[in-house]
Design brief:
With about 375 residues, the chain is α/β, with parallel strands linked by helices. About 30% of the residues lie in helices and about 20% in strands. The protein has twelve helices and twelve strands. The structure holds S-adenosyl-L-homocysteine (SAH).
């Protein structure tokens, strides 16, 4: 017998649901109601969509997959950061994180999501790319991460921000990422304004130009990590065939189209890119761009020999940037004690079995959480 094809994923955008409803003889307005249940009312299963006729709920259950992932691990830090290791239908694993913050505008609930299984960019210090890329995530899998994390919030709270800074290179999977972000923005989807969505990229000029042409409304963050080509190629190998000049030019075109301040990320690696000379070289590269530099002290990855920058090196680096008039923000990774540097948990957990295989896996038991989470101090973000 030929293998039974998997059920279509209800989160996959397109007209599959509308066509199915028509074939079932249902009115087309049902689709809107079902989507509201998915994204706004956060039903945990078709069965919970209580204002749909029972027969329709049962038919949905056998016609569409609701959750395609299972939760392998769920960790929670004292600062409220929660991290999920998800197993996909084909057994691959990805990570996603919920961050709780208080900013000027009120409480922030940020989800950090992955775009690929693994990563092909090969940044030497990053856990996500150590084994290369396995595959792109589907649009439904990207959305399911947001949904899984949204389900961890109390009813009165909503996801307010999205950062595509998990595993993978988002601009290498734009075809699936952009439709997911459209649903994230849609008032009938998660309803998150585009200004609150950040895409972090290693800097792929052609893909940045595509984004510039299609939709420059997202907040773009470009990972630099070095301000000259020879050091950048050493740290970010993909730079060899691209070069900083092209990355900066594409970033400038994005900025011109969007009018929004660009962010450049710079991971400080002790003894490698954290000297005063490196800071001055970064100042020169940025020139008079109205940019924000996000300095990220390296978060150690098990098995890699890169070091965190010393406090003195960090302080000098920051001071040199600030004195030169550069806008700088230091990002202390939240929940670092729960292996929040993406890609780490996936590697550490190799061999684990899923905590549960049921569709209700979005609510792991307290026992699961307590047994996997070490005591940890609260991490902080310093402006
Ligand atoms: N591929 C995208 C998204 C990667 S993750 C990109 O390159 O931007 C988002 C940021 O976290 C990147 O700047 C990445 O370089 C950084 N990062 C990855 N591993 C890290 C680690 N161990 N410590 C500190 N920052 C890290």
């Amino acid at each position: 017998m030929p293998p039974v094809p998997p059920l279509p994923h209800i989160l996959e955008p397109g007209d599959a649901l509308d066509r199915w409803l028509a074939a079932e003889g249902q009115p087309t307005w049902r689709a809107k109601g079902i989507r509201q249940w998915l994204f706004r009312r956060r039903a945990a299963a078709f069965e919970g969509m209580t204002d749909l006729p029972k027969g329709l709920r049962e038919r949905l259950e056998t016609s569409f997959a609701f959750w395609t992932t299972t939760i392998v691990r769920h960790q929670r830090a004292d600062d409220g950061t929660e991290k999920l290791l998800l197993q996909l239908a084909d057994g691959e694993r990805i990570e996603c994180v919920l961050l709780r913050d208080h900013a000027e505008g009120g409480p922030r609930r940020t989800v950090c999501i992955s775009s690929q299984v693994g990563c092909a960019m090969g940044c030497v210090f990053c856990a996500s790319g150590l084994d290369g890329v396995v595959r792109n995530l589907t649009t439904g899998e990207i959305l399911e991460q947001i949904l899984r994390l949204a389900h961890m919030l109390p009813e009165e709270e909503r996801v307010s921000h999205i950062v595509v800074m998990g595993m993978g290179e988002p601009l290498a999977n734009l075809d699936r990422l952009l439709p997911a972000l459209r649903v994230a923005q849609d008032p009938d989807g998660f309803g998150i304004s585009q200004r609150r969505i950040t895409i972090s990229t290693v800097g792929l000029p052609k893909a940045i130009d595509r984004l510039t042409a299609e939709n420059p409304g997202y907040h773009l963050a470009v990972s630099l990590h070095a301000a000259d080509d020879s050091l950048r190629t050493q740290i970010v190998p993909v730079n060899k065939s691209i070069g900083l000049a092209d990355v900066m030019a594409a970033a400038d075109r994005y900025w011109e189209a969007s009018g929004r301040r660009l962010t450049f990320e710079y991971v400080l690696l002790g003894g490698l890119n954290d000297s005063p000379a490196h800071a001055r070289s970064l100042v020169r590269l940025l020139g008079d761009r109205a940019a924000l530099v996000n300095v990220i002290p390296y978060n150690t990855v098990a098995g890699l020999s890169y070091r965190e920058p010393s406090s003195a090196a960090q302080a000098t680096f920051l001071e040199l940037l600030r004195k030169a008039g550069v806008n700088v923000q230091v990002r202390r990774r939240k929940g670092s004690r729960i292996d929040a540097a993406c890609g780490q948990l996936r590697r550490l957990a190799l061999g684990d079995r899923p905590a549960t295989t049921s569709d209700q896996a979005s609510q792991p038991s307290t026992a699961t959480i307590a047994s996997t989470i070490p005591r940890m101090p609260t991490s902080q973000t310093i402006q």
